[in-house]
Amino acid sequence: MVQLNRTFRLRLAASIVALMTSVPLATAKPRPEKANWDNVKQLLPGEKIRIKLNNAKSCEGLLQSVTDDGVVVRLATGEQTFTRQNIVRVSQKGQSNRGRNAGLGALIGAGSGAAVGGAIAGPPGALLGALFLGMPPGALVGAVIPTGGWRDVYRAPKNGEQQFGKVRSNGALSAAGK
Fold it and tell me: Which among 84, 66, 91 is positioned nearest to 156, based on CA atoms?
């Protein structure tokens, strides 16, 4: 009986681990190829972008247009064209989610405020705790959490790299990162 109980627990633990690892793997999206200039071509005019140049300078502005040879960006000083050979990285500004974060923070705060208020004063305290102790600070914390950072759209291949790997000194193509 003890051996059966132990076997059951081991199988249960293995099943839980399998589920925990399979769900993230099944929902993982393939990473787009960052060395593909077509990613930049898919950006829409007016989007906020950041360009890092091969001289280590960085510029932020609104995208005006993209060609096979480079990009035109509206900077604070006016429009400027950057050639593709001089661009090391192009990043896109992500969307801010402060309203959603404030709502989630308010809900989490309401739950914790209700738990604290209910523990102190019973059911009437739970309602008051949710409304006054939990929701305002939760919404405030949710709203100030930064979201919508920069997401790399394009990274130029380094010297000797091609789109799908690196060229070794003997001229053979190896898998990226090896």
Answer: 84
Quick: pLDDT tens for 7-52.
Answer: 665 565 455 545 555 545 455 444 557 778 888 888 889 899 999 9
- The predicted model scores a pTM of 0.50
Q: CB under 8 Å to 62, separation ≥6 — which residues?
A: 45, 46, 47, 48, 49, 73, 74
- Kindly report the backbone phi and psi dihedral angles of residue 63, in degrees, each rounded to the nearest multiple of 5, phi listed first: -65, 130
Assigned CATH class of 28-93: mainly beta
| Distance (Å, whole) CA 114 – CA 14 | 36
User: How is the chain split into domains, by residue range?
Assistant: 28-93, 98-144
